[in-house]
Amino acid sequence: MQRLAIAALVLAACGTSEDERPRNLDYITEAILVPSCGAATCHSAFKGADGFVFDSIEGARATFQNDIQLIAFEESDPTKTPGLLLNLTIEQAGAPRMPYNAPLPDVDVALIEDWLRAGAPGVCNNLGGSACLGNYKLPCKHADVGKGEEGAYDLSKLTQANNCTATGKTCVAGECL
Questions:
Q1: Spatial CB neighbours of 36, under 8 Å, sequence gap ≥ 6
Q2: CB-based burial of residue 87 (10 Å sphere; 0-12 exposed, 13-18 middle, 19+ buried)?
Q3: How many CA atoms lie within 13 A of 150 on its CB side?
Q4: What span, in angstroms and rounded, lies between the C-alpha atoms of 124 and 126?
Q5: CA gap 114, 108 in Å, rounded
Q6: pLDDT, mean over the chain
Q7: 4 lies in a domain?
Q8: Quick check: helix, strand or coil at residue 47?
Q9: Is 1 a domain residue?
Q10: Is the peptide bond before 35 cis (omega within 30 degrees of 0)?
Q11: 144: which strand partners?
Q12: Could you report the per-residue pLDDT of 5-16, keeping only the tens digit for each?
């Protein structure tokens, strides 16, 4: 009987299998991207491999805002995986899974995927208005991420109608100019 009680206590101490970590830019940058990707030899402001900077929240925000392929699911195929997830989960064209020296644990990749599917809360910086994602003008909707509301892209609006390039313009500060 004592063994059953001990086993029950051990199982209870294990907690839930649900990941309770925040799904927002601040947490993902500070807890995952900075230590794993923002090293001076890869995606720091110093090196900026492939134009990506993940050593600060502002660097990560700018990187995500400027490269729609990193975070957006394709409008014609919402199941298509964004480039950031592809780089973190599979080897592509001879390039290793990132980070190449120590790939991220699956739980971190799953957290990042959940964050992306929610519209990347914390990247969109014009809450209640419009913001640019690459050359797309998208609504910046409210997202409750556990520490208050943050802006998240409304990825359902990622359509040709919101592509500034289609009208010969460029997205600047949430407007096609």
A1: 99, 102, 104, 108
A2: buried
A3: 20
A4: 6
A5: 10
A6: 78
A7: no
A8: coil
A9: no
A10: no
A11: 149
A12: 444 444 444 555
Contacts of 62 (CB under 8 A, 6+ apart): 53
CA distance 161 to 167: 9
Which residues, in sequence order, are bridge partners of residue 92?
95
The pair of three-digit structure tokens given for residue 130, joined into one six-digit string: 């419009």
Cα separation, 61 vs 132, whole angstroms: 12
The pLDDT confidence band at residue 87, using thresholds 50, 70 and 90, is confident
Whole-model pTM above 0.85? no
Residue 34 CA to its chain's centroid (Å): 13
Number of domains in the chain: 1
In this prediction, residue 45 carries a pLDDT of 85
Asked if the structure places residue 15 within a domain, the reply is no
Asked if residue 118 lies in contact with residue 152, where contact means CB atoms within 8 angstroms, the answer is yes
Domain of residue 68, residue span: 20-176
Q: Which residue has the tokens 């957006």?
A: 72
Q: Is-contact 115 24, C-beta < 8 A?
A: yes
In a domain, 8, yes or no: no
The residues pairing with 130 across neighbouring beta strands, listed in sequence order, are 139
